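#onboarding

Welcome to the new folks! Below is a worked example of what a typical request in this channel looks like: someone posts a single protein sequence, and someone else replies with the predicted structure as tokens. Don't worry about understanding the tokens yet, we'll cover that in week two.

Example request:
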Amino acid sequence: MAELLRLAGDDEADDGFASSVLSGLAATPKRLEAKYFYDAAGSALFERICELEEYYVTRAELAILRQAAPEIADLIGPDAVVFEPGSGAGVKCRLLLDALTRPAAFLPSDISSAHLAAATEALAADYPEVAVQALALDFTREFSLPLARRGDGAGVVFFPGSTVGNFEPEAARAFLDRLGRATGAGWLLIGVDLEKDERILLPAYDDAAGVTAAFNLNLLTRINRDLGGNFDLAAFAHKVRYDRGCHRIEMHLESRQAQIVRVLDRRFGFAAGESIHTENSYKYTVERFARLAASAGWRATRVWTGEAGLFSLHLMRRAR
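Example response:
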């Protein structure tokens, strides 16, 4: 059985949700933090998104991992200790653990402890020779997790998907620097989505089945449930935009009408067409991301982009 360790910022101890929502709805323009998408329902919806035909990210990265895993394992060496922030369902980590030589420990983390516990139990059962410890953790906050204390092999941060794109570029730089300092890891294996034609990008965030719309709107359901809100979900529409100048996809919840919404003891007015900005997803070139990571102390060792060039996987070493 896997051990579950709660660190600062897990969803069941987090009192920052209310203050974040209240300040975000009072801001101009209105905004909500994307990390709060991932309650149990939101995490399950995101797993469905990863299976959609339009959402190329997961398929492209899995194909790259399958191809590159043996070389990654050779470079990292035996007895590695692997930390995965935001591990979700724990699918991609299996490809890495299968390739590594005698991995000593695997430390998956997620902001949704209920979702994390279910995924980690299966991992612990399937990898009995690996010390699996789940961490209920908000990795966007300060934390300390020295990987060197958990084994003699290399410390590895495994950060697949395109989550780094949810950060503003300067915040991404600070986050990557903090990952290095908090873990002492010598290696970073990170997935980065690449710039591409809007005809591919936009459907990935606005699928025909409406799963991404449900994922976005679930944030309002969470506010209603946890903060006594009275959002009418039918009065908001899921909207996706691509800002080419900023190199980012934006997700919004747009008010269909003029309305007043109550959250806790506060009232917030919406004009018809006014939106809540819920997520950014920045897209990079390989060179632009390498420069950003270098400014945070990570030196590129290898990069794989797959046959279609839709996505990139970067293996980096800590330079300082």
